[in-house]
Every structure is written in structure tokens, then in C-alpha cells.
Amino acid sequence: MASTTAKVSQESKKNISFTSVKSLAESPELTSIPSSYTFTTNPDDEIVVDFDDVNDPIPIIDYSLLVTATPSQRAKTIHDINKACEHWGFFMLINHSISKSLMEKMVDQVFAFFNLKEEEKQEYAGKDVMDPLRYGTSFNASVDKVLFWRDFLRILVHPEFHSPDKPVGFRDTSAEYCKRSRKVGRELLKGISENLGLEPDYIDRTMNLDSGLQILTANLYPPCPQPEFAMGMPPHSDHGLLNLLMQNGVSGLQVFHNNKWINVSSTPNCLLVLVSDHLEVLSNGKYKSVLHRAVVSNKATRMSLATVIGPSLDTVVEPASELLDNQTNPPAYFGIKQRDFMELQRSNQFYGKSVLNKVKI
């Protein structure tokens, strides 16, 4: 990232108007980014390392040992999930039940959507955070002071399934992918419930996951001529309980751990599981939602597909009463409906844990 004193070229100071980063990146006149996309950080305040160089390696969880293994293997896997959630807020999931062919098909369909004509994509340019289909750029381009080098398609897929009509095949592929990823997420939450000393179905039941909110967000990060000056997505945590993230083979995700930004490589057939804000609240802070960000490249287009598993819109998310003790472990967060939490996210600065901090006691 650029320092706050870095200078942007005269050409980049032109505030060129484009409806998407993809169309901006493909403009033959583009040699430097418009000043509205310049995201500055102080390099003295951050350290970035590759995950291969981390003494405390990123946890890897074998999903098959959670669902089909012996009781002792399952118990060890649950214990490993506990350590990952507590110390990282993040882990890599292998041997899950989503096939390689389905993941590849989903990647192809996402690229096919972003390759539609701009006027076709604009048919889905929703404005409200609760619109079932929203195509757009940045995070909230109408109010963002600095625009992010990102286009997105955000779809509500549960309790009611939605999908764009184009491209052909997107609906069927995304429906199957969402069904399978939902099953994976709920199975992980059973193990997490047990880790917290609760009944296996506690989170599923109290968060009303039968009618819970599941959101599929496809993110496109085109090549950027000045990646040192731009950011795909700023440091943030996610709403919901868990975020299951898939990438297209191009790295760009960084997670914050032990005061360092860790580059997370894009491993084939792997899901990246991120602890989200509502799980931090429910666990009364035992598990911390992970800060993460997306950096961009001048060489390749990166795509990520995030599946957020969350409570129903009218569920009040608060610390589990079974975990509380007024003397040793008092509640650290106010209860808030999922609907209201999402409204806070829309109306506040999208940076760090700005929304979660508003419900801390």
C-alpha cells in the first residue's frame, strides 16, 4: 500500500466516471488510477508476511474427519476448530463435501456474469442493502470517499433463493453450490457449539438457521495499473456467523494475525472459513471475528466468492446466556437484531470493526 505522502500522477487525478472497475481497467487510456481510488496506509504501521513464513501456521481442518470419522477423530477435529477460532478466527477447510467440478463451474459462471455487457449487469444495480440482487462497485459507491478496486454481485440465497437470469446456467449452478455450502457451514457450527460447551444444535436453533440469512457475494478484482495505490477491500470483519470463501486461483486475501497481515495463498479445492461478527457476539468474545482485506495486482484478475451464513433477520443476536457469569464473564455485547446490525453496517464507515464496536458494552 502507498504511504500517505505518496504522489499520484497528474493523469490519475482526473476523476473519470465509469460504472464499474472492470470497464475502467479495460479502458485503453488507463495508465494510472483516478485519485478517487487512491487508498493510503502508513507502511510503518503494518507488517505483511507470506503464510509460509509464519511461525504459527494457518490452521487446516479436514472436514471429512468432522462428519465421517471415528468419535476420537471427530473429537480431535472439534478441538482443532476451537483452537483455530480462538487464536486465528480463520482456518482452511479441506476434504469438504463441495466437489471440485461444482467449484470450477461456479467460478466459470461468476466470470460469465461479470463478462456480460455493462447494460445487462446494470439491470441488477440495487440500492438498498436488503435488495435480493445487487450489482455494483466499491462498497457503497454513492457515499465512499475512497472507491475500492472491486465490482460485486450480492445475492440473497436463503431463506428465499434469488438469482440473476443471466448468464444461462447461473441459477442452477449457484443453487447447487449454495445448498452444499450451507450444509458445510451448519455442520461446522455444530462443532463450534460443542466447543463452547453448548448442545450441538444450540447455534442452529437459537439463531433460527432454518430461516437464516445466507448471502452469496461474488467479488471481481481486475488488474490495476498501480496496485500499490489501490485496495480491493479495506480491513474489515463480516456480519453473520461464518463466511466460507472460495477463490479462483489468484491470491489477494490477507488476514490480520498477531499484529501482522498474512498473505493467504489461493489453494485449489479449499474453502477459507472466517469467523464473523455474530459468532464473536454469541461466544461473548471467546472467538474473535477476523480482520481481513483484499489487495490487488497489476497482472491478474482475482475473483472471490463469499458465502455468509447468518441468523434470520429478526433474530436477536446476543451472548449465549449459558456462557455468562456476572462475576467472571459478564455480557460484553448488547443484543441486536440481524436486520438492525446490517443497517448499521450500511450507514457507518466500512473499516475495521466499526459496526461491531457499536454493540460492545
From TrEMBL:
InterPro entries for the chain: DIOX_N (IPR026992), IPNS-like_FE2OG_OXY (IPR044861), IPNS-like_sf (IPR027443), Oxoglu/Fe-dep_dioxygenase_dom (IPR005123), Plant_2OG-oxidoreductases (IPR050295)
PROSITE patterns listed in its UniProt record: FE2OG_OXY (PS51471)
Coiled-coil residue windows: none
Fe2OG dioxygenase domain residues: 211-311
Any GO MF annotation of the entry: oxidoreductase activity
A Pfam family reported for this protein in Swiss-Prot or TrEMBL: 2OG-FeII_Oxy
Protein name: Fe2OG dioxygenase domain-containing protein
Organism: Lupinus angustifolius
